Amino acid sequence: MSEPAKASSGTREPRDHSHHSVDGRALSNHSAASDGHTFTPSRALDDHHAHSHHSDTVGGNGHTHSGLPFDGRIHTYIPDMDEDRIYMDYNATTPLEPQVIQAVTEALHEAWGNPSSTYTPGVKAKKIITQARENVARMVGGKADDIIFTSGGTEANNLVFRSALEAYRESCRAAERRGESHHHDNGSTSAWPLPHILVSNVEHDSVRLTTEHLLKDATADVTSVAVSKVTGRVEVEDVLAAVRSSTCLISIMMANNETGVLMPIRELCQRIRFVNRQRQHRILLHTDAAQAIGKVRVDALDLGVDYLTIVGHKFYAPRIGALYVNGPGTTTPLYPCCLEGDRRGASDQALRTHP
Ligand SMILES: Cc1ncc(COP(=O)(O)O)c(C=O)c1O
């Protein structure tokens, strides 16, 4: 999957005021170990040299650990940046591609209408939204109806947590109506425990801080599974060992934003699908694919996830995002809200990025 950082001429191209795309693989490196707390790129290199193991990775934080220059195509001109500096922090955010700026500008001119209205500007806005939804769905291997536009990855991730918690509560209420009580891990039956969520200890703050809030408010129990100190990967067996009868969600990122390490999402989904057959409460699976899209193939159906987070500003779009939900409200629970087809607390939007 990963390729070593490619050597290039390293010479700067003349300043041409245009954006050149970055091949994510050109930024790849073989970063290896992480303790999940103090991981730094230079540590990764040291640890990689110390161990023969390595994981699949996508480009880390835009650094070459070896100091090798990047592929010659990446000399993006960023206004306001020092002439002698090259912007490389593509895992934080990317500049907009000229085609994106053009598409947004056209939409600002032509699709300013309310997409719910029947007159021309509204119809145009609706058409653009529909097309965009289809494009995003195709990108991640889903159907247009599976895509919910959001203000970014943080909102998408929060929508998942909220939905999984509500689905668990609903499952408890349904079991009560059937006269069932909760089957605890120790075999006893009694009151319903708090919903339990599993994450890795290297998740992005939008997940980590959300779980901290849930814990603090006593809304959910959370287990943070440590990634391997050798590979930087969360191990499937460690996740499975942490599953409880009250587990309602496993949320593990697809690629880490600091190390670029790819997590075994497909294998995890396969195992959980089997576990789910024998459970009172279904475990939902979410992956935050913010750092994977545009760098490696991302196919939600092939992975087998229920939810997948998409963050546009990691691949040349404005600072917006989307959530893939496999059959929202039917196959997979989704609990908001009011609009975006009753799926999110916001109205349809062709242009708005932050409601
Ligand atoms: C892995 C990951 N998830 C989520 C986010 C948050 O996305 P946003 O800034 O659009 O809320 C980021 C962005 O930094 C990220 O790297």
From TrEMBL:
Segments for region (Disordered): 1-67
Localisation: Cytoplasm, Cytosol
Names of the cofactor(s): pyridoxal 5'-phosphate
Protein name: Selenocysteine lyase
Pfam family, one: Aminotran_5
EC number in record: 4.4.1.16
Entry GO MF terms: selenocysteine lyase activity; transferase activity
